[in-house]
Amino acid sequence: MSAQVYSVKFAGQAGAGIKSGGQLLSKILIKHRFNVFDYNEYPSLIRGGHNTYQVSFSTDKVYAPRFYVDAFFSILPGHWQNHINEFQKDTLVFSDEDFKSQKGKFLHLPLKEIAQKVGNALSANIVCIGVISFIYGFDLKVVEELIISEFGKKTETNISALKEGYAFAQLNFSKFKQKIKLPTKVQKNNCFNDGNEAYGWGFIQGGGNFYAAYPMTPATGALHFLAPRQKEYNMTVVHPEDEIAAANMVAGAAFAGARAATGTSGGGFALMNEAISFCGVTEIGMVFYLVSRPGPATGLPTWTGQGDLLYAIFSGHGEFPKVVLAPGDHQESFELSALSLNLAAELQTPIIVVSDKMLGESSANVPDFSKTKVKINRGKILDQVEPGFKRYSLNTKDGVSPYTLPGTKNGEFLSNSYEHNEFGFSTEDSDITIKMVEKRAAKLKLALKLTPQPVLYGTKKAEKLIIGWGSTKGVILESIKMMKNPEDYVFLQFKTLWPINPDIQFIINAFKDITIVENNHTAQLATLLKSQFNFNPTKVITKFDGRPFFPEELYEKLK
Fold first, then answer.
1. Mind giving me the DSSP string for 142-193?
2. Among 3.40.50.970, 3.40.50.1240, 3.40.120.10, 3.40.720.10, what is the CATH number of 193-371?
3. Which residues of the chain have pLDDT under 50?
4. 196, 310, 443, 483: which sits with the fewest CB atoms below 10 Å from its CB?
5. 6-176: CATH homologous superfamily?
């Protein structure tokens, strides 16, 4: 039987410490050996608006945040009203105002008064941490140590806010204290990263040494993570004038031998399409980290969605091979980041890693990626060549021609956007064009061998198949856990979205009841699978309002 999952949620306007308070709570929970998964929502505003930060935790692994909350803190008045549907009869709702509702147990918490007492209006979030520490029985010394390490100069005020919140709860909320047994088992995954940070660690451990990106939510986190680590890990991180410059800088760096990547979201990826096509014809291996948000155009810039799948697969004009990968959780964000650099070197073609806001900006407890070793493959680099080097040699079965780095004796060659012969000279010859197109296309067969195959989660007894990709992995696994007979379900996760292994149809066809789950309007993976073989799912479940699926709602739809 699965352990209970608890959820705590903070709400307030931007600038009120919603995120910092939520992240502090996540770290407190990890220190107490819980597993966590957090989720934050915020409008595209620097100040004001309605922001939330939710932390779901359990003694078991938490694959996705829950919809219903056990404790809710309205850090400023007027924010709990948006979340009544998330309250149940035993939900503890704390707010600095008089309120009534048919759902939840409403408790008056004078946050403004307590924060003013300690001398800092912005410490209301730490007052809430004090209340939570009492309600859930956290070790106050552990909490204090974390506050000291997190806040530096503001430690004294925050420690006072913590103690005042704890004391107020002790005096007023004793009958609401939760009976949660703190875990005693040592937690191996005791680090805390969001998906963008996990991708960044994969880039570092995978030997990445050049990253250029223009800030664009929700991919900016990777840029901010890598930039301050340049000296420590001997890499170059550049913030250029726009996404076009970023992509072409990375293409140039990759041409020169760097293990290089750029990161962006849909609008920036649109500007990078010429560079993708350029890398296709010049056979430059570089990585594009595409963290999706809903479109079209600016769309919902701070929300989540999986609407860029087909766009990624068919990006860049003309026909050329590319690989599209999609991590489903933080561990896979790390693994596929490192793998993408190897694939770029081995296949000499664009590699696209598709994530989304839900995964990129949500955090979980993870292994220490800074100490995780990764095997590095640098591809067919030649140190010595004879005069007359053919950079784009047709004498290759897998479509990958050996290459040289600039400065290699006798290894000079041309590399431009025209179709070319084996030396790189531009050509419009019909026979050479056919041979070059077919040579490049042959890389897809090699890609099928090098990329992750779809993964099945479940038992042999299962009769119902659920298919998903990317961040839907966690919510699908959580919803299956909630089923009366979870052994009836099996989940098929696609990590490699292109190329599609045609043999996967034999696994799918073994099931009569097939459901596909996607965070977009048109079920793009379903469309893709239909283009490759006869695929007719029994049911298609989609969501496209900028919010992720939650286990409870998917559970109801699957029932």
1. HHHHHHHHHHGGGHHHHHHHHHHHHHHHHHH-GGG----PPP-SPPS--EEE
2. 3.40.50.970
3. none
4. 483
5. Pyruvate-ferredoxin oxidoreductase, PFOR, domain III (3.40.920.10)
